[in-house]
Amino acid sequence: MRELVYYVAVTLDGYIAGPNGEFDAFLVEGDHMDAINDRFADTLPTDAAAALGIRQERTEFGTVLMGWNTYAVGGVPSPYRHLRQIVFSRTHTADGENLEVTSEDPRAVVERLKSEEGGAIWLCGGGALAATLADEIDRLVLKRQPLFFGDGIPLFGERPYRPERFDLVETSAFRTGVVVSELVRRREG
Questions:
Q1: What is the CATH number of the domain that holds 115?
Q2: Among 28, 47, 114, 187, which is 20 to 30 Å from 176 by CA?
């Protein structure tokens, strides 16, 4: 069965973007980038990976999920065309290679995707979609940035209080102050 992985950069105070979707303060240069690009090359936009000479072999992910605001920030019709892209929106449409915009319940889509063959499913963002899919997330890969935003889009939007345990798989700290932590959901029973 495929797993849903929330792979995202996050500030020390828990934001994945500023109040208006800003993400330009995140560190995209430094010793953490080679390690991230080696393991998670599939998470680079297709054109960016090509410009950097990074091969995308879909070894980690086969599908990417995005809310409309996350999709729209890139400004290109098919940012991850090397993957199957599913964008959730009740009001917008878009056309692009390997791109589907749907108003379907994200939980139903993930349930269906998990039963299909293929690589892991990457939850790219945003926070509201992550809150909707929180119960379906199997693994978290958090690229904690040495930044405070003070306000913005939270890692998980509005969600009721319900503690859930994740177990640490691996943590890597870099001189830039970026810390990449991978956690898996603890399954009881």
A1: 3.40.430.10
A2: 47
